[in-house]
Amino acid sequence: KLFFTDYGNAAKVERCDMDGMNRTWIVDSKIEQPTALALDLVNKYVYWVDIYLDSVEVVDYQGRKRHTIIKGRQIRHLCGLTVFESYLYTVNSDNFNILRVNRYNGTDVQSLARLDNAKEIHVYQKRTQTAVRSHACEVDPYGMPGGCSHICLLSSNYKARTCRCRTGFILGSDGRSCK
């Protein structure tokens, strides 16, 4: 799945398949300017920062179990968000402080460091990644991902895929080759 935020005409948090199909709103109420998003891949939770409401909230992948982690002036102007173990990590865009927030109670907020012009934050650690099983976009014996001549996108599950073409090409009638 691909998760993303939008605050154009109607603010929301959405998800879709990697090929863009099955687009679903998972949060579309009591939300104003969702700007940063982080996933707990193990427990299947979506966290987001709303910079207009000065809040960090969470829902499960279906948009249920919504609750506010933290709200108020102490977390104004946040950008970037990532999750690791019991904490959320984010950047305050006013002073470039890296903040750590306990994701279970929201009361334990610590400033860890200051990085000039920091706008994003990511955790790269093996435990944050789920194991990858064989999938429909694996390279075939001819070196083509999923049998697609250009781009292979996973679809509704790891066994299904959609082929796409680079700009300037169109997908052939076989649904795999680009012309």
From TrEMBL:
SUPFAM superfamilies: YWTD domain. Signal peptide: none annotated. This is Low-density lipoprotein receptor-related protein 1B. Pfam families: FXa_inhibition, Ldl_recept_b. InterPro entries: 6-blade_b-propeller_TolB-like, Cueball_EGF_LRP_Nidogen, LDLR_classB_rpt. It comes from the Eukaryota. Keywords: Lipoprotein, Receptor. It comes from Eudyptes sclateri (Erect-crested penguin).
